[in-house]
Task: structure prediction
Amino acid sequence: MSFSDLYTSGFKSRNRDHFAAIVRIALADGVISSEEEAFINRTAINLEIEENEVEEIKANIDAYPISPPATELRRLERLYDLTRMVLADHITDSAEEKLMHRLIIGLGFPSADAAQIVEKSIVEINKGSDEEAFVASFL
Result:
């Protein structure tokens, strides 16, 4: 059995959908900055997204739905990645924040808490929190 056989198609699909959400935020202002592109490329490697898939996702971003994780821990881990993407170019514009608000709801967080979650997420990343500290701040 090869290493890639250890991953189910569902695992790969969740990674692809998560990656697409990150790309969607990068595209929110219509331009992918060099910092955002670097983050996208690192994330693609970490999520085992092939280069041709990266280009397909960028070209057809609306074809990739938000798939909410089953556990709170996984939601927070995805929130960490999404927030880092928003802040990758050190500019948080209203389009990115609005999209992040929608993605937070799509990830399964309560809509009534979305604005507070966006703000807290940005504060935690600006503080320099790593993934573990970020997640702990919400638990």
